Amino acid sequence: MIRVLIVCSWGMSTSLLVDSMLEAAQKRGYELFVEALSAGEYAARVEECDVVLIAPQIRHLRKSIEKLAVATGKPVALIEPFHYATMNGEAVLEQVLRLFASAQEGTTRP
Amino acid sequence: MTNFVERSSDWFERYLVPPLGGLASSVYLQAIRDAFIIFTLPLIIAGSVFLVLANPPVPALAALIAPYQTDILVPYQLSFGLMAVFLAFGVAYSLAQYRRTEPVQPGILAMVLFLVASMPVRDLNTLQLGAILPYLGGQGLLVAILIGILTTEVMRWFRGSRFTIRLPKSVPRNVTRAFEALVPTLLLISLVWGVEWFVSSFTYVDGNTTQQMTIPFLFMQVFKPLVAVQDSYPAALLEIVLMMLLWSVGIHGMNVVTAIAAPFWFSILASNAASAHPTGIVTEPFFHIFAHLGGSGATWPLVIYMLRSRSAQLRTVGKVALGPAIFNINEPVTFGVPMVLNPIMMIPFVMAPVTIVTINYICFATGLVHVPVVLQPFTVPVGISGFVATGGDIRGSLLQFFDLGVSALIYYPFFKAWERILVAREEAASAAEEKETPAQAQAVVR
Predict the structure, then answer these.
(1) Domains of chain B: total
(2) Which residues of chain A have a CB within 8 Å of the CB of B337?
(3) B235 and B181 within one domain
(4) Can you tell me the mean pLDDT for B285-295?
(5) Quick check: B376 and B349 in contact, CB under 8 A?
(6) Across the interface, do A39 and B98 touch by the CB < 8 Å criterion?
(7) Is the ipTM of this complex over 0.85?
(8) Residue B10 pLDDT > 60, yes or no?
């Protein structure tokens, strides 16, 4: 089970991406938990996840989000804007898997 | 041309993103924004339902309901009408989340402090609820925000300081936490009560009764000019331009501007809701319902253009964007066309909403269309939302459709120009691919 938090602003558009990611995960047989939340909720609940993703419309908060993720040892990355735009769940799932694997190995840190 | 697009997008990234991003990443603004959206918006929307029921748009129904009107308004008064109380909780709670401290304690305390600040210091048994009710809602928002911030910051400071009650390590953590909070709680309550006691020793005349002043009353007197300034065309123009500039560099503009302007929008909306002849124009629905048709930037017509575009990229994005556009969500457009950091599309992305806001302001100010009085989720489709927002004025829907036409005209030439660039790029890419294929095949063999 991989738990993913997507930090975004209203959670409206991101919920579309979440659905698409879950569908892609099911197809490939991964157990995935994804939740979209605001930067404040993220700060309160970062410990509960394995991977942190940042939605492109809050790119300006990237530094503070990354700082907290690094401090709590969570892999973090920005979602590619075009993948976000086309609600490409498969591509974003791929990104999650890469981040998760790199964190497991403990080799790369953002 | 492609070169120009890339160079100017670099320039925007370097000079426009940092200052706008700085404004948008203020923790206080984010906490205020979260508090409005998570804690008060659902209550305002639910309360609005009762407001609509009490004031049906059909005269025959209105006459039927007239005897029960005040009764139907009770749920509205105790939800929408008390929004400042819940906002105080929300701001303290959200800020505590950003500060990574326990959020419920400051939330509850902020609510108590806001009540202390709003009640004149006197025998409360003889206090008339009606005299203070407006200051627990739309007129008390600024005080609620300040108290929310103050509560969380003071409690956080005490938690780390030596002025806190310390208990031995063997005491359970929850017990310790309650004691830790005691000193700042008593201090803050005494402080706010002391100030309120002083303030309520002064009186003012309201109609033919004499009332004691309260902190929210005093604040509204000071900020009244600012509320009036915010409800003007120049302010509306400034807000929409700021929103769209932020979105142009990929930052959620509506969010940032909401954090700053929401206290004013909702105080005006509350006075609109409470008035028989409302006149306030620049409110939340003015932007969300009447300007951002199909999403920020009024991009509805653009989605239609994209569906039949000659560019594969635009067609792909258009297909994904159609469903969300119905519900006024347009991140697929913003990041897929993209509008963000795109020197060509940024022009109509700002110009279309600016033109629409101008037309709408004129229509509302001249009484051509009833001013917005009802708040609804921004996801209500265009056409329906204009009717509901105006309290049942069909001209509200007509105005939305007219605005869509305006947006379609403004976007068309820019869409065509951008499409030409993309088609050229796509053709160049496929030509290059054909050339590269043998080389790649060789590489694989090796």
Answers:
(1) 2
(2) 85
(3) no
(4) 95
(5) no
(6) yes
(7) no
(8) yes
Residue B140 has pLDDT above 90, yes or no: yes
Tell me the three state secondary structure of residue A76. Answer: strand
Residue of B nearest to A46 (CA): B100
CATH of the domain at A92: 3.40.50.2300
- The chain-wide mean pLDDT, for chain B, equals 89
Structural domain boundaries, residue A86? 2-105
Residue B67 lies in a domain: no
Where residue B295 falls (left for φ over 0; alpha for ψ -120 to 50; beta otherwise) is left
Give the predicted TM-score (pTM) of the model. Answer: 0.84
Angle subtended at Cα A75 by Cα A71 and Cα A76, rounded to the nearest 5 degrees: 95
Is residue A62 a part of any domain in this protein? yes
State the best of A16, A19, A60 to mutate against chain B, taking most chain B CBs within 10 Å.
A60
B 382-421 residues with CB below 8 A of A? none
Q: Are residues B238 and B217 in the same domain?
A: no
**In a domain? residue B217:** yes
Q: Is residue B91 part of a domain?
A: yes
Q: What is the C-alpha to C-alpha distance for residues B422 and B428, in angstroms, rounded to an integer?
A: 10
If asked whether residues B257 and B130 sit together in one domain, one would say no
Q: Is A49 a catalytic residue?
A: no
Chain A within 8 Å of B280 (Cβ-Cβ)? no
Matching residue, tokens 């950091």: B341
B141-188 tens-digit pLDDT = 999 999 999 999 999 998 877 776 677 777 777 777 777 888 899 999
Q: What is the mean pLDDT of residues B67-71?
A: 91
Domain range for B260 = 1-26+231-446
Number of domains in chain A: 1
User: Which residue stretches of B55-172 are H helix?
Assistant: 59-65, 69-77, 83-98, 104-118, 129-136, 141-160
- A110 in any annotated domain: no
Length, in residues, of chain B: 446
| Higher-pLDDT residue of A62, B8 | A62
Q: Do B317 and A57 touch (CB under 8 A)?
A: no
Distance between A50 CA and the closest CA of chain B, angstroms: 19
